[in-house]
Amino acid sequence: MADEPDNETQTPETPEEQAPEAAAPAEQAPEAEIVPAGEAESPEPAAAEEAPAAEAQTPEPAAEAEREEAPPEVQAVAPPEPVEQLSSKERRRRARSTHSGEAGKPRTPEERHAERVAERRTKAVRRRARRLQERAKATERRASAPPPEPLPPVHAPVEGARKVRQGIVVSDKADKTITVRIDTARRHRRYEKIVRSSSTLHAHDENNEAHAGDVVRVVESRPLSRSKRWRLVDVLERAR
Questions:
Q1: Number of domain units in the chain
Q2: How far is it, in rounded angstroms, from Cα 36 to Cα 7?
Q3: CATH code of the domain covering residue 222
Q4: Residue 206 forms part of a structural domain
Q5: In this predicted structure, what is the pLDDT of residue 69?
Q6: Which of 151, 179, 193, 234 could bridge 171 with an S-S bond, Cβ 3.0-4.6 Å?
Q7: How far apart are CA 150 and CA 157, in angstroms?
Q8: Domain that holds residue 195
């Protein structure tokens, strides 16, 4: 107790001497503030998570202004409406109904007829020019196109042996035509009897060489008339 008065009466220390004493509590402060890691760090992340959520809930005024200023075509593109198919008569009627110009001068029937005639002539000239142009193009196209290849024949041209007959001229009254009788004799298949028959045919005689009673030879040919399918070859024997 005797030492206490001496301490109170001592002169105050200089700032240099007080600095170490003030620094000592500052160095001890962190030791007093040490807290377990789980309790000290937990409040900060919770606050960090709440801040973005609050920012997301409150829309920015700039984004709202841009959305309001955007044109309606950008906000929502409406599907195109189907085009109405109108006839030519309906289109003309609608064009006349929407015409806002002044009414034309009244015309007489003669003027209208003259206008129609002039329009028809103009259209006729255009049609004629278009047709001539199309014909010229078609001609050029045919000229420039390569020639078509010849098609192979379906059946080979085969000429068979023509029939030849010998007979007697029974008539030469027609011009360039003779009637020839062909006599045939054959044996019957069952009775073996000689059966004689005859037939007539018309042959073409270009120079009228054969006469009635002559023995001639004829050969078949293409159809020369309604009844002539034969042609005179030569005269074998003249009539007496």
A1: 1
A2: 42
A3: 2.40.50.140
A4: yes
A5: 55
A6: 179
A7: 16
A8: 164-237
